[in-house]
Fold this sequence. Notes:
Blueprint: H1 2-10, H2 14-19, H3 35-39, H4 44-56, H5 60-66, E1 74-75, H6 83-87, H7 96-117, H8 127-148, H9 173-191, H10 203-216, H11 222-233, H12 236-239, H13 254-268, E2 271-273, E3 277-278, E4 281-282, E5 286-288, E6 298-302, H14 326-331, E7 345-346, H15 348-351, H16 362-366, E8 397-401, H17 402-414, E9 419-420, H18 423-435, E10 444-445, H19 446-456, H20 463-469, H21 473-484, H22 499-504
Antiparallel strand pairs: 1-7, 2-5, 3-4, 6-8, 9-10
Helix pairs in contact: 4-7, 4-8, 5-7, 7-8, 8-9, 8-10, 9-10, 10-11, 10-17, 11-17, 17-18, 17-19
Amino acid sequence: MMNLYKNILICFSLVALFTSCEEELDLSNPTALSIEELLQTDDGFKFLANGVLDAYQKVPANEFLISELRSDNVRANTENGNYPAFNAYNIDPNNGDVATYYSNNMSTIKHANTIIDNRFLAPENQQYTVGEAYFMRALCHFNLIRAYENIPYIDTVLDINADEAYDYPQLDPAVVYEKIIEDFKTSIAYLQDATVDRYRPSAGAAISFAAKAYLSQPSPNYKEAELLLASVVENSSTYGYSLIFTEQGSDDSDFENYKNLIQDFGHVFGNDIDGTFTDGVPDGSWSNNSGLEINDEVIFSIAYDLVSSDTYVTADSSLDEQVQTDSESFSFAMTLQGPSNGVNIASNEFLEVMTPELQPVRFYVSFDALSYNPTLETNDTFNAKFPTPGEIGDNDWIVLRYADVLLLYSEAILAGGNSTTDSRAIDAFNEVRLRAGLDEVVNLTKADLLAERRVEFVYENQRMYDLIRFGEADKVLQEFSNQNSLFYTNEKKYLPFPQRELDNLPNFYNQNDGY
Length: 515
């Protein structure tokens, strides 16, 4: 563990930090300023906050493998790399992606802790950066506990010359969730009056994630989650949040309505359709349109761009000699490049619930329709939500969107029950249904809600955590495993704790059960 933290801290990387802020700083001597000196500059905290966001760009690189590829939504039709092992629940503690996802989140946490440790030095006009740091620290720990379950909570930049890692044992998950929620709530106070920017943490995002943490903890607190989510849903216009949705005209044909709704849903992800529609079905293919990526449905996203974003410069911008970028790392397995490696293929089980007939809107945005052939049992149907044709991806990664908030609100009101007729839950649920071109419901069941989340958020790395949160993971994944000759057991809901963490502090951390 000490070696990991030494690497992370030594690589606090003023070079990388200043790379993310190159419009503001002279890079001729990027290590000229120490952290202490940087904090004394007029915009030092802004630069540090940009560094936190830049560090987080690396997190989605492995997230598809450790979440979606371990669900019943997708499969790997390949022998390449780690893909078959993740898909089969057959990974081990030495797996590189397991370790990298852990360390990328920890690296972001370290950047955030640099701001938090020095928060009393932040000038008045940069207090929002402290709120962003608390938010990002909470978000990364939220990622880690949902993936590994048994983790420490790192709340300071550790001294590389001391054995401070021994002060950070694995904690009871309930304790970790308390700390995550506390950090999200602390961030709200700092961000309450900050300018809303979809590429930066905001008060609305912090409220929503605090609620999601309440729902995800071992003993869900539905009432607190409901109160938080109600404050967002009931004030959505104030926050500027809404679904992208074209009202269906009474004089329009079903085909015309579906055409509009398909375009709307594609625009959520910053995508445009090339070509025309025939009887409401798109003839063309999707492509990224950066002008659509900042929209009212996106609450928080991470920019992946070949040029600077609106408010911070990404690690892959303006570096003429750079070959591999953070965008490429994010995009490869999840975009049109995925099929070349035999991944992001819809499982046969998922194709039973995601058909053009059952999902006339979501189907055409989520899948490459040309690859869909239900007459072939071995048909490979590919993801279309991130339609980058090359190795460098332009699609932003949406961390949170308003459709998630609406369905979480319904979940909080359902409160672990099997069904509800509460109008608030049903209205929120039906908003998402109507945008998908589906009929409204008058009674909302737990099964309906889980099924709706599955088709709404496919390829957005939600399914595995939804199954765990709803208490359905063992039942659903064991059946999926049995049908496909995989190796799921109830312990495999969570990843193994990285072996290098165990090796760096022998006899300090315990491996998760089943590994």
